[in-house]
From TrEMBL:
Residues 1-23 form the signal peptide. Pfam families: TctC. Keywords: Signal. Belongs to the UPF0065 (bug) family. This is Tricarboxylic transporter. Gene3D superfamilies: Bordetella uptake gene, domain 1, Periplasmic binding protein-like II. It comes from Pseudomonas fluorescens. It comes from the Bacteria.
Length: 325
């Protein structure tokens, strides 16, 4: 009898211990690896409110900013200094994967973190001020053909970044050497918008979700969005695609989160389960739509496979542009 009671007590203790391992993190934090106001900031703030609304977190996670290298500084900091911190999520995008494909995150690669969730997608876009002389994408291309250095283009990151790649693909399609274009490297969509509206650059290579607040205010216009067809949202339906203007370029910008490489399986499972519940909810879909993101839901091993395939595909693209050997 005593032996049976001990077994029951031991089993109960194990269940309690497992529950503690999979408990809500005490100080959850979302790192946006850029300056405030861009896509990483948007991604963190989307789940900051959504996780609380769905009662998956009892209080909002902190959003902190760690700009540098369009994600490289945050990636290195988490992998090297906070590898087992179960409370720290870091936002990533397709641009992060492109940089990983080129070795821009230093000694770490796509195998050095735990890919957690993809929560939505946006699309690349070319933005100008509302009073810009460029009315169409072809207007811009003709100006670049005449003198590639005459147009100052702001992009998130240096040569080889996602924003650089968008304009490089346009240049290549138009017979222009992408390396002849005049770029200003900025840290994310927030800085691109500030520089564009301040007159420091003439064109912003960005994405549509970053741009919509400025489009709606009347301060900016989009010459093209890199989607396969016009987007259905009422405020986006009049924005032409690059494809319909003769430039067959499609560039989705997937957004999501990763965790440090030594986060326990139990804590990883807690986050995965939470995101699975979140992504299946109608309330999250509403919040995602409000932030001009489109459906793209993936978690756990499925996401890990997706990320590694994307990095491999981006390596092929980077080789085509002479960015890696």
């Amino acid at each position: 009898m005593n032996l049976s009671l001990r077994k029951v007590a031991l089993a109960a203790s194990c269940i309690l211990f497992a529950g503690q391992l999979m408990a809500e993190p005490k100080r959850p934090e979302c790192i946006a690896p850029a300056s405030p106001g861009g896509g990483f900031d948007l991604t963190c703030k989307l789940v900051q409110s959504a996780l609380v609304n769905q009662k998956l977190l009892s209080k909002p996670m902190r959003v902190t900013y760690m700009p540098g290298g369009v994600g490289a500084v945050a990636y290195n900091a988490v992998v090297a200094q906070r590898p087992a911190d179960a409370g720290t999520l870091v936002a990533w995008s397709s641009g992060s994967l492109l940089n990983l494909a080129q070795g821009k995150f230093g000694r770490f690669d796509e195998t050095n973190v735990r890919w957690l969730a993809a929560v939505g997608t946006s699309y690349g876009a070319i933005a100008v001020k509302s009073d810009s002389p460029y009315k169409t994408l072809d207007d811009l291309v003709q100006a670049l053909k005449k003198d590639p250095s005459s147009v100052v283009i702001g992009s998130g990151g240096t040569v080889g970044s996602q924003d650089w790649m968008q304009t490089a693909l346009i240049a290549k399609a138009a017979g222009i050497n992408p390396r002849d274009l005049r770029y200003v490297a900025l840290e994310g969509g927030g800085e691109i918008a500030t520089a564009l509206l301040g007159g420091h650059i003439q064109v912003g290579s960005t994405d549509i979700s970053d741009s919509m607040p400025h489009i709606q205010s009347g301060d900016m216009r989009l010459l093209a969005v890199f989607a396969d067809k016009r987007l259905d949202e009422p405020e986006m339906k009049d924005i032409p695609t690059a494809r319909e203007q003769g430039y067959d370029i499609v560039w989705p910008v997937v957004r999501g989160f990763y965790l440090g490489p030594k986060v326990s399986d139990e804590d990883y499972a807690w986050w995965k389960d939470s995101f699975d519940k979140l992504l299946a909810s109608d309330e999250f879909a509403t919040l995602r739509d409000q932030r001009e993101l489109f459906p793209f839901a993936m978690t756990g091993p499925e996401l890990d496979t997706y990320v590694k395939k994307q990095v491999a595909d981006y390596k092929v693209l980077a080789k085509e542009f002479g960015l890696i050997q």
